[in-house]
Amino acid sequence: MKAVISGHFCRGAVFGAVCAVLSLLAGCESEQSAVSARSVSTPQAVVTEAVTWQPRRVQIQAVGTSRAGKSVTLYPEVSGEVVEVAFKTGDRVEAGQTIVRLDDRDQRLALELARVELQDAERLHGRYQRTKGAGTITESALDDARSAVERARLNLDRARVALDYRSVEAPFDGFVGITDLDPGAQVAPSTAITTIDDRTSLLVTFQVPELFLGQIEEQQAVSVSTWANGSPEHRGEVLDIDSRVDPRTRTFAVRARVDNSEDRLRPGMSFRVTLTMVAGRYPVVPEVALQWGNDGAFVWAVEQGAAKRVPATVVQRLQGVILVDSPLGEGQSVVTEGTQRMREGLPVSSLAEL
After folding, report:
1. Under a CB-based contact definition with an 8 Å cutoff, are residues 291 and 309 in contact?
2. Helix residue ranges per DSSP H, 224-283
3. Directed axis angle between helix 139-164 and helix 105-130, to 10°?
4. Distance from the Cα of residue 123 to its chain's centroid
5. CA 212 to CA 277: how far, in whole Å?
6. 25 secondary structure, DSSP code
7. Which helix (H) or strand (E) segment is 20 a member of?
8. Distance separating alpha carbons of residues 27 and 219, to the nearest angstrom
9. The pTM of the whole model exceeds 0.90
10. Contacts of 222 (CB under 8 A, 6+ apart)
């Protein structure tokens, strides 16, 4: 009988202990529910930053090769002996200035002879004109005299041209280059005399990937600099854009004109060409605001005091910020600190508002 009573007593004690534990757990769950409810109703403190918009800037760098704004290699028109070299390497010459003179004695004599023949023809024609009324000169003879005058005038012009061919003149203002000619040298039309460069401006040609075809326009600004350390940049503008793409390199040629009025640059130099293009406007968000999920990148935006997940596609990374393709409005706030606690619809409050 005592054993039975003792057994009932033990089971009652165990039952009481279990009830006490269950009661304690129930109290904890109630307390956690209350805390959770309070946390949901209380806005989460976060740090936000306003979204700005700015254009997407793409910078192209290429290697360019230059030539003078005007450049020519001079050749003689005829063969002959050089009697005068009227320049020194590096001289600045003006348009029409004689560079090299060939032996022209025969041509000068031919010019004088043509001049005398013209005078004779004109005198004969004048005499025929004066005696025309007397009936001693036929109309046919007068016509022949008139034709003789015209032929003599043409021969005189040809003699002047032949004499002009005996000298080589500068076609425009510029600087002359090196020559290997000396007086007494024999030259032919295939003999290069020297070069002349008008380097007040340079034409710089460079290659651009076909991806940017249609995005570059004439008169667009470019900057060029030499490869020397500390070389200053020189400004220029796009002058010509090639009409085709090279199928081997998948690039097209662009030529820019660069001012060289200070004469610091030389034709033939290579340059580092920088071309900046602006394409579209995009929202700008801080790097820390961009989050990644299973469906791609997104940011937590604040709308009417609650967090909202907004998709964002990276367009361009800049210094500390990212251009994104996203439906974010200019001036809209995005969460930069506290993103780990965010979920859709969670009330948030910026620290600046607390």
Report:
1. no
2. none
3. 160
4. 67
5. 9
6. H
7. helix 2-41
8. 78
9. no
10. 204, 235, 236, 237, 238, 256, 258, 273, 274, 275
> What SS3 state is found at 310?
strand
Residues 276-289 have pLDDT tens digits of: 888 788 999 999 99
Give the SS3 label for residue 340. helix
Q: How far apart are CA 272 and CA 224, in angstroms?
A: 6
The CA-atom distances, in angstroms, between 229 and each of 101, 225, 232, 260 are 45, 10, 9, 19
Q: Which two tokens stand for residue 310?
A: 């907004």
The answer on pLDDT for 15 being more than 50 is no
Q: Which tokens belong to 213? A: 């075809």
Structure tokens at 4: 């039975």
Strands (E), 122-210: 167-169, 174-176, 186-187, 194-209
Question: What is the SS3 assignment for 228-242?
Answer: CCCCCCEEEEEEEEC
Separation between Cα atoms, residue 177 and residue 195, nearest integer Å: 5
